[in-house]
């Protein structure tokens, strides 16, 4: 039996599930696209070659990613679609059913179940091959309320990973694009996530962490200011001093002097006041 082509739409935040990719491509010709791709163009190309099945792979479905599926179903109602998701709720399953999704899977998937579903669908498409396609009317369904919050969970995870990486590599050159790639996102989304979580941009967060680390290191009197400057990722002493003063209101040397003075005063059992010894 001739196999239908499966179009796998990556609607995840961190990359499609390798297990799903493996089970599909083991049995069916696979075309892998992202949610930003023009699905219409992909369908036109594949339809010319034969039958098409579409699989949408989600991790944390949100309004934007679910809208891609909904709009695709509206525009290409006759194309059968399957849905895979990590985040599951009864409302989401009901939404998928009402959107006329052929099958709904919660990850991790069972290989045999996916294969069996694709085989049944492929058999139906084969039997109906050559017939005039039935006119299918698909009504757009309201997105489930809990989908409004799923994106933030994924973004929080990306921010957590990025923040840990920054703390471990403060002395190095930190490239936003590289860190975003390590977190499975892009620079714009990562900066937007930092703005939501911390109230500042990604670059501002790095600068703040470097200044905070510098204040810790300056309390060690054996480390010179220039040593501290390099240890926290600055390679220009004057720029370091400028940024440090902007965030703390004093120069690095001034901060060290004030901290050392306060430490000494805290260890004295007495202090002078109007010419007399006064016990603390």
TrEMBL record:
Q: Does the keyword Isomerase apply?
A: no
Any one Gene Ontology biological process term?
Answer: positive regulation of metabolic process
Q: Does the keyword Membrane apply?
A: no
- Tell me where the transmembrane regions lie: none
Domain of life assignment: Bacteria
- Per the database record, which ranges form the HTH araC/xylS-type domain? 160-258
For this UniProt record, the keywords arranged alphabetically read as follows:
DNA-binding, Transcription, Transcription regulation
InterPro entries per the UniProt record, alphabetical: CheY-like_superfamily, Homeodomain-like_sf, HTH_AraC, HTH_AraC-typ_CS, Tscrpt_reg_AraC-type_HTH
* GO MF entries: DNA-binding transcription factor activity; sequence-specific DNA binding
**Name of the protein this chain belongs to:** DNA-binding response regulator
Which species is this UniProt entry from? Answer: Marinobacter orientalis
């Amino acid at each position: 039996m001739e196999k239908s082509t499966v179009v796998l739409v990556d609607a995840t935040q961190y990359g499609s599930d390798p297990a799903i990719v493996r089970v599909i491509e083991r049995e069916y010709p696979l075309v892998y696209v992202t949610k930003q791709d023009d699905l219409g163009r992909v369908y036109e190309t594949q339809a010319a070659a034969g039958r098409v099945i579409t699989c949408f792979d989600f991790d944390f479905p949100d309004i934007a990613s679910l809208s891609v599926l909904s709009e695709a179903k509206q525009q290409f109602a006759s194309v059968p679609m399957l849905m895979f998701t990590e985040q599951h709720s009864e409302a989401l399953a009901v939404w998928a059913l009402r959107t006329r999704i052929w099958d709904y899977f919660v990850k991790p998937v069972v290989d045999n179940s996916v294969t069996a579903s694709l085989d049944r669908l492929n058999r139906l498409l084969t039997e109906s091959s050559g017939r005039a396609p039935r006119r299918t009317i698909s009504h757009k369904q309201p997105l489930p309320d809990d989908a409004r919050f799923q994106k933030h969970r994924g973004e929080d995870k990306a921010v957590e990973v990025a923040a840990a990486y920054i703390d471990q590599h403060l002395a190095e050159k930190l490239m936003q694009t590289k860190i975003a790639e390590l977190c499975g996102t892009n620079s714009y989304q990562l900066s937007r996530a930092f703005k939501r979580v911390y109230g500042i941009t990604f670059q501002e967060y790095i600068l703040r962490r470097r200044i905070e680390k510098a204040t810790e290191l300056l309390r060690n009197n054996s480390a010179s200011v220039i040593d501290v400057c390099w240890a926290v990722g600055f390679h220009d002493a004057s720029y370091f001093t400028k940024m440090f003063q902007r965030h703390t209101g004093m120069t690095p040397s001034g901060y060290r002097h004030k901290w050392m003075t306060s430490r000494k005063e805290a260890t004295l059992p007495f202090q002078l006041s109007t010419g007399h010894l006064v016990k603390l």
